[in-house]
Amino acid sequence: MKLIILTLTFCVSLFAWDFKYNELSENETDLTKTLIKIGQPYGLGLELASIGIVETRLGKFKSRNNYICGMHQINTNIAMKRLNSNGDVKQLCEEVRKNKNLSSILALKELIYWKKQSNNNLSSMIKSYNTGFKSSNYSKEYFRRFTIVYNELKKRSDLVNS
After folding, report:
1. Which of 31, 103, 121, 136 could disulfide-link to 70, CB 3.0 to 4.6 Å?
2. Is residue 35 within 8 Å of 48, Cβ to Cβ?
3. H-helix or E-strand containing 91?
4. pTM of this prediction?
5. What is the pLDDT of residues 39-85, one digit of tens each?
6. How many of the other CB atoms lie within 10 Å of CB of 158?
7. For residue 144, how many other CB atoms are within 10 A of its CB?
8. Which of 69, 62, 72 lies closest to 32 in space, CA to CA?
9. Under a CB-based contact definition with an 8 Å cutoff, are residues 126 and 47 in contact?
10. Distances (CA, A) of 112 to 18, 28, 129
């Protein structure tokens, strides 16, 4: 009986994830617009903003992990590799936690990498941003959540046409 209840609870929480743009605070809508502007020159504005929302609800939720950090949940080990740096991962993580612009720039760099790897395939790009080259049920769920946010943002002419 406990197993059935746990399974039902898990399923409900898994599919209950939702997003409504009009429920964001003024600061969150401003941050969303900023993220879109950062990513726009690379054709990744809505993607960058959507990931910030899916990962941490624009910084509302924090990771307790020592190397997954910031609003976009940057894997600092990967970021150091992409930057060809041998620097201090913990120090980078602390900086990414404090600096939303740095988090955004590193996330954008990662998106650009996966955009190229996936030949501009949105689904592959977003799943790979989350889990790398390996696809999993989690990456499929991540893409489902991303799509909810992405489509909601895409409907907003004030965001798409700015």
Report:
1. 103
2. yes
3. helix 89-98
4. 0.87
5. 999 999 999 999 999 999 999 998 888 899 999 999 999 999 998 99
6. 9
7. 13
8. 72
9. yes
10. 26, 24, 10
